[in-house]
Amino acid sequence: MEPDIVLSADRIVTRYGGIKALHGVSLSVKRGQIVALLGANGAGKSTTLRTLSGLIAASSGSVRFLGEDITKVPAHRLPHRGLVHVPEGRRIFGDMTIKENLDLGSFTLADDVERRRRLDHVFELFPILARRQNGDARNLSGGEQQMLAIGRALMAAPKVLLLDEPSMGLAPQLIKEVMNIVQRLNREGVTILLVEQNSKVALKFADYGYVLKAGRIVLEGLGSDLASNEAVISAYLGGVAA
């Protein structure tokens, strides 16, 4: 693996029962990049992230992270290594407080000073979470829940962040706010693999992009090239060029 590549998939095949969802997907993410994984509903985007993070076992192929083969590593061990997954749908715990949700992101951390430093960073990124930290997470809006899901992931101090549809269901202004945070995290040194159905949003930020169709990578290239290619957007992503 090239020195700059921090996460890669090599011909991964993933099945749900007897149904093959991924057909030999290969991709790579370089240190410091935002990489977009694009495609229509059912293309295999979320399945790819779940396979990379160990939530679903690949039937064949391999996944490497920071030079190590992690294909067989249990999902719960990967955040400690720096690979953290923010799933589609946020998956927050509504009957727990905002702070309790955040604390779950660093539950194995013994250093209370470091935990407080991480928490302060999350509260600086998302002031609304600081103001409402003692309230139940169920009372947050959709955009605030997305902020909480990202904040919880940041408590694990990720080296690579897997973000699944962070803009889903959000109003345009909230999408802009969340994506600005994504860009800031990247500037702070977090490498990001971003799954998005909203190609216009993703390609404004992405250094590189992959397009999935029916469980196969059908196209890849610089984010700026994909964003300006009307034929690509129309054929594979169901829209118009950004």
From TrEMBL:
GO terms for biological process: L-amino acid transport. Residues 7-239 form the ABC transporter domain. Transmembrane segments: none annotated. One of its GO terms (molecular function) is ATP binding. CDD domains: ABC_TM1139_LivF_branched. It comes from the Bacteria. It holds the Pfam family ABC_tran. PROSITE patterns: ABC_TRANSPORTER_1 (PS00211), ABC_TRANSPORTER_2 (PS50893). Keywords: Amino-acid transport, ATP-binding, Nucleotide-binding, Transport. Belongs to the ABC transporter superfamily. This is ABC transporter ATP-binding protein.
